[in-house]
Design a protein that fits this description.
elongated; Cyt_c_biogenesis_CcmB; mainly alpha; Heme exporter protein B; 87% helix
Length: 218
């Protein structure tokens, strides 16, 4: 599993997928103020939600890379018949994708928050909630990527399948961020739910993705 993790991490970084998501994140956040106007109070109020939406969409751009390259070069067939449990293989690949594609988004979110006049406390809360919530998006996306790996235009299908399932993660991530800004007390409940969603999908996501991969192979 360690070898698979490091292999996938090198491939994700070498393929430029991480930088593509980061550039899209930057472009989206930098464009929003031009569309909304110079109202700093409005930008400050909706800034955390924009950062979360940008991170969600940027992550969706990277999901089709999860299994597609392995299918093209035959590696996926070897993983399907290999001795390692397929669910653990999926989990290792998800961890590599998250580290390559999502951690840069988390690190960039406080800097990009300056474009939206987000207060420092809100920028910190956004980074913390993204760190806790983006793994759930990747784990949900693994199921969609497994379903779309054998289909034409699978990347479009992945986004269509994953986006509705990721809405609860978005809701609780934004709620926790606003809770940290308005009052420290309301931050705890939505943040714990966000962490619970990540833990839930860390079990369900790899199992469902493994079943989908075997069904696609059959």
């Amino acid at each position: 599993m360690r070898a698979l993790f490091w292999r996938d991490l090198r491939l994700f970084l070498a393929g430029g997928g991480a930088f593509t998501g980061l550039i899209f994140f930057l472009a989206l956040v930098a464009t929003i103020p031009f569309g909304i106007g110079p109202d700093l109070n409005l930008l400050s109020r909706i800034g955390p939600a924009i950062l979360w939406i940008g991170a969600l969409l940027s992550t969706l751009l990277s999901l089709d890379r999860l299994f597609q390259a392995d299918r093209d070069d035959g590696t996926l067939d070897g993983l399907l018949i290999g001795p390692q449990p397929l669910a653990l293989v999926v989990l290792a690949k998800c961890a590599a994708l998250w580290l390559a594609a999502c951690v840069p988004l988390v690190l960039a979110s406080p800097v990009l928050g300056l474009f939206l006049a987000v207060p420092p406390q809100a920028m910190l809360a956004t980074a913390v909630t993204l760190l806790a919530g983006t793994p759930a998006i990747v784990l949900i996306g693994a199921v969609g990527a497994a379903i779309g790996v054998a289909l034409p235009r699978g990347g479009v299908l992945v986004s269509v399948l994953v986006l509705p399932l990721a809405i609860p993660v978005l809701i609780f991530g934004v709620s926790a961020t606003y809770g940290a800004v308005a009052d420290p007390a309301p931050f705890t409940q939505p943040f714990l739910v966000l962490c619970a969603l990540t833990l839930f999908f860390s079990v369900l996501g790899p199992l469902a993705a493994a079943l989908a991969l075997r069904a696609m192979a059959d």
